[in-house]
Amino acid sequence: MPSDPLILAFDTSAAHCAAALLSGDAVLAQRTEMMSRGQAERLMPLLQDLLAKANRSWSDLDALGVGVGPGNFTGIRIGVSAARGLALGLSIPAVGVTGCEARSLASPAPDLVAISAPRDQVYLCNPTDPSIDPKLMSLDAAQQIAQSLGRSLNTETAPQQVAIAIAKIAATRWQKTTTSPAPLYVRQADAAPSRDQPPVLIA
Length: 203
Prior knowledge:
Elements: E1 6-11, E2 16-23, E3 26-34, H1 39-53, E4 63-67, H2 73-90, E5 94-97, H3 99-106, E6 112-117, E7 121-124, E8 135-138, H4 139-148, E9 153-154, H5 159-173
Parallel strand pairs: 1-4, 4-5, 6-9
Antiparallel strand pairs: 1-2, 2-3, 6-7, 7-8
């Protein structure tokens, strides 16, 4: 009888490193560290510690799951790059899971799910299909939409629950995945190129 697939999932799309190790329906280990910066240096040691805690090694993994955003641009790039590199090195698939998909699975069913964004804004997830790209809007506007639907707005899904949900979703998709995970960016980066015209060079 084949053993349950072993899925390592992680998310760095916000001010945290969160990871979970899933075998079948069982969460073997999970780890979350809150941090506003430093995910690039901390992620790989954290994943190694997680595997060691469960007495597993990299070669035991069947697939990876990674949060692809929306969220912090740098954090998303860190997570996606790590997943793609690990998938290549281990010759296993990596599954990209959106923040809306993960949070919708982890949240109580009546809640309207949103992801916090800068400047009192949120990424509002589609209430009927979390795989659809969310809409960036003010928190007030999202609360009004939730009220009109008779639902509570949930912007506070715990990072460890997000990581576990990513693992569970990846477990249903890894055997059919044919593309590498890619970042989900809903708005342009703050550090956009200057719109000023370049100076005219005189020969």
